[in-house]
Design a protein that fits this description.
This protein has twelve helices and no strands. The longest helix has 34 residues, at 55-88. It is an all-alpha fold and 262 residues long. Helix 1 (3-33) crosses helix 12 (227-260).
């Protein structure tokens, strides 16, 4: 057996092992979620249909999806202009901004919730008790991951030269950020957005301790009396996030192909 052939065999074996490591638990979840409750044998899709037919679970799914959308929009609106402005105008403050953005990563979520619980009593008083007010807390939660993704894209372009060229042609700062810089860092923004969506859809501590009904909270409550239905909801959530990541991969490939086309 030649070394190259041996390497291919070892690589194939490792791929099979890793695939089994990831997919066997998912198949077990799917098997459990389609089992009929009780001792009667058979399969049923009722547990999957419950995500649509159960009003409380359906409303929690909609709330989490809206939370993910609003979190991404607010994160991009706050983080991208700030990072571009700091990089172009006040580069000395870059370390401070990075420290502030990465700070939530070092503080446990439980501590953050305890710290902002009194603030959220005023937020709910002014804006209502909808779960969508969690957007402000979730933006803080996703800052470390979003900052890294966007900063990597900004480091890959010459933002100073692009902005100076646009400014010399009469473009304002809004035009520079929205029409010059952002199209060149779309990959980083998409990466930050999909990471934020994954975090929001799986976040439990904030919503539970602040008493909001989001998808993870509803799923935890459902598990207490209907394990297969909760397992179906968890598997559906993972499939949704996986599809988002696959979409990010194809979008990145399309942008690279377009950039390589003369």
């Amino acid at each position: 057996m030649t070394p190259s052939r041996g390497f291919r065999v070892v690589r194939a074996v490792l791929l099979v092992v890793f695939a089994a490591y990831f997919f066997v638990p998912l198949l077990a979840m799917f098997d459990f979620s389609t089992q009929v409750r009780g001792s009667a044998p058979g399969r049923t899709w009722d547990n999957w249909a419950l995500m649509v037919t159960d009003e409380d679970l359906r409303s929690s799914i909609i709330a989490s999806l809206l939370l993910a959308l609003f979190t991404v929009v607010l994160m991009v609106a706050l983080l991208v202009p700030t990072m571009v402005w700091v990089r172009l105008r006040v580069p000395r403050a870059r370390g401070l901004v990075e420290f502030l953005c990465l700070l939530p990563l070092t503080i446990p979520a439980l501590v953050i919730v305890v710290g902002i619980s009194n603030v959220y009593s005023w937020v709910t008083y002014l804006l209502g008790d909808s779960a969508l007010v969690l957007t402000f807390a979730y933006v803080v939660l996703v800052l470390p991951y979003s900052y890294r993704a966007i900063d990597a894209s900004l480091s890959g372009i010459d933002a100073a030269t692009l902005s100076e060229a646009a400014r010399s042609l009469g473009a304002g700062w809004f035009t520079v950020i929205a029409r010059i810089i952002m199209p060149n860092i779309t990959g980083g923004i998409l990466g930050a957005a999909f990471i934020s969506v994954a975090l929001v859809l799986g976040e439990y501590v904030f919503a539970s301790l602040l008493h909001f009904d989001t998808f993870p909270v509803a799923m935890a409550l459902l598990y207490k009396h209907n394990g297969p239905a909760a397992m179906a909801a968890a598997l559906a959530s993972m499939i949704f996030v996986a599809l988002l990541l696959i979409g990010l991969t194809f979008l990145g490939r399309d942008r690279h192909k377009q950039g390589a086309t003369p």
